[in-house]
Every structure is written in C-alpha cells, then in structure tokens.
Recover the amino acids of this structure.
C-alpha cells in the first residue's frame, strides 16, 4: 500500500498529527529500543516534520532541522518507521523523501546526521559518509555521518 507524504512546520501540525508523531517516536525509540531519553528537546518547534501515512495511520517520520539548530549543516533526525511497514521499502522511501525535502527547504548544502551504528550501510546507500569515531548515546552506539 503506497504512502502519502505530508510536510509541516511545527506550528502547522494538528493536535492529532503531533500526537501521532510522539506516539510513533515513543513506541520505537523508548519502548522497542528500550531507551529512556528526553525526546522533547526543544528542537521540534524550529523544525519541519515529514510524515508518511498509510491510509490515515502515521507509519514513517523524520524531523528536518535547519542549519544551525543541531549542527552547522542541515540535519535529518528522529528517523523512524512503524514495525508494520518494515522490510517494505518504507524506510528507503522515507530517507529519499527526507533528503529531497531538506534540499528544497535549505538548499543543496551538506546534511549531517547522528546515526545508529547498525544502520551505517543503509545511510551509506544514500551517500552519507562516516565522520569520526562511534560514540554512545542513550546506551546505543552512534556515528556522525555527512552527505556532501
């Protein structure tokens, strides 16, 4: 079943969309990955939110951050797909759409991400390159990656 995409600034999100975003992020990052962390980090308000829906259900999401908010470069964060769409290509579609939207919003400059180490090859397939050594964040190994 195809996904349809909605991109909104924080202030344009409906309460139902915001709830769905927080629910998906918590279901995966907190419950599934057993990672207790402060998800509400005051960056959502200055970011764009890319939502992938299957019918009316949010199943894929990223947060698109402008240059200067997390890093000097634009960034893609909170990359998450619902377990119901994994292995369907939804994650690849999500990243391709996210990169496209970052370029539309912020220009064709570099994109920096903090990626979970086990997803290194996935991000490399989109042109991201590891920069620096692995680091521990919330008990999970991460690496910084840059797409020039």
């Amino acid at each position: 079943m195809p996904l349809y995409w909605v991109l909104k600034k924080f202030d344009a999100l409906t309460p139902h969309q915001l709830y769905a975003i927080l629910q998906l992020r918590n279901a995966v990052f907190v419950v599934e990955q057993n990672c207790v962390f402060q998800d509400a980090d005051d960056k959502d308000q200055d970011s764009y939110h890319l939502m992938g829906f299957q019918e009316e259900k949010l199943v894929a999401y990223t947060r698109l951050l402008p240059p200067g908010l997390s890093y000097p470069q634009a960034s893609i964060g909170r990359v998450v797909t619902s377990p119901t769409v994994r292995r369907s290509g939804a994650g690849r579609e999500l990243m391709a759409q996210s990169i496209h939207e970052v370029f539309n919003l912020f220009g064709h400059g570099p994109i920096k991400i903090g990626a979970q180490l086990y997803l290194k090859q996935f991000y490399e397939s989109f042109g991201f390159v590891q920069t620096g050594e692995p680091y521990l964040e919330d008990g999970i190994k991460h690496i910084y990656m840059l797409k020039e």
